[in-house]
Design a protein that fits this description.
about 325 residues, alpha/beta, Enolase-like, domain 1, eight-stranded parallel sheet, 12 helices, about 25% strand
């Protein structure tokens, strides 16, 4: 950011239609309400996007207010490291941080990949199957049976095994992961995990509520467990150590790419393995997350595929393979 001249900040709200309905254990979504940040300097324009989450106490209005509260510092050319100190983790900081990466790349004539010291490459993403009846999830899985890996949204109760079984019957060759979004108990985990293992499920995300996951200490997992709601930033790592084998890094949780990369490095140093995830954002949200995705074993960056439309130009998707974003989009 220091290589740029005077910076001007603009913020706007955008609403994007979901392709049908996307449901998880906490509820269903038909619209993705996003906040987009633009930073202009030296004839260059940097973009960042976030999706405020009610579940984390965020709204479009609160996110915009957070960003406005630090407008003078942003326009004065604050660094990305300084941004970590003046905004808390969450959606607001993510949009600003990603816009700063984009602007830094454009002002400096280097790609975001070069700034991060990472070689650009393709990654394979899963496709998420919205929570529904086993019959409906079977029909949906038939459409994506050739996708390399499917992520099955679960909602608690005895029907979850039937949901997985229905997907497995529809997509016999796909790799499978499952995401309970905090809807299980330790009893359900102990009961269902052995069955899901026989059905080929490789990973279970956030089976227990993040604030009530202590029973996982001492639990010997049939299938590796991934912390999602339980892990936001590096500050989460001490508490979750020994409870999970993976962490799901999402830029809207970490508060941007800067913290996401730092979290990835520290998590791996502690022996934790990585998944990279997303909210229901456009390709503008996916583009920076791809840098972290190159460090991860599991990638869940299907947000643009869940929308009725995407940005132009989009991040390129081809049968589950994502290529780096075109510079006209980001980075």
């Amino acid at each position: 950011m220091r290589s740029c001249e005077e910076i001007r900040l603009s913020i706007r709200q955008e609403s994007w239609r979901v392709d049908g309905v996307f449901a998880i254990a906490r509820g269903a979504q038909t619209i993705a309400d996003l906040v987009v940040v633009e930073l202009r300097s030296s004839g260059n324009l940097g973009h960042g996007e976030c999706e405020p989450q009610d579940f984390y106490g965020e709204s479009v209005e609160s996110v915009i207010a957070q960003i406005e509260s630090v407008r003078p510092r942003i326009e004065a050319g604050i660094s990305r490291d300084e941004l970590l100190e003046c905004l808390p983790p969450g959606a607001a900081r993510n949009a600003v941080d990603c816009a700063m990466w984009d602007l830094e790349a454009k002002c400096g004539g280097r790609s975001a990949w070069q700034i991060a010291g990472l070689p650009p490459r393709t990654v394979v993403t899963d496709f998420s199957l919205s929570l529904d009846t086993p019959e409906a999830m079977h029909r949906r899985a038939l459409r994506y049976r050739d996708w390399p890996i499917l992520k099955i949204k679960l909602g608690g109760g005895e029907v979850d095994v039937e949901r997985v079984r229905a997907v497995r019957e529809a997509a016999p060759n796909a790799r499978l992961t499952a995401d309970a979004n905090e809807s299980w108990t330790i009893a359900q985990l102990e009961r269902d995990a052995p069955v899901l293992r026989t059905l080929g499920v490789e990973l279970i995300e956030q089976p227990l509520p993040a604030k009530a996951d202590a029973p996982l200490r001492g639990y010997q997992p049939e299938i590796p467990l991934c912390a999602d709601e339980a892990c936001h930033t590096r500050a989460s790592l001490d508490r979750i150590q020994g409870l999970y084998q993976f962490v799901n890094i999402k830029l809207d949780k970490t508060g941007g790419l800067t913290e996401a990369l730092a979290l990835a490095n520290e998590a791996r140093a502690r022996g934790l393995r990585l998944m990279v995830g997303c909210m229901t954002g456009t390709s503008l949200a996916t583009a920076p997350a791809l840098l972290v995705a190159t460090l991860a074993e599991y990638v869940d960056l299907d947000g643009p595929l869940l929308l009725a439309e995407d940005r132009d130009p989009p991040v390129p998707y081809a049968g589950g393979v994502i290529s780096p974003a075109p510079p006209a989009l980001w980075g």
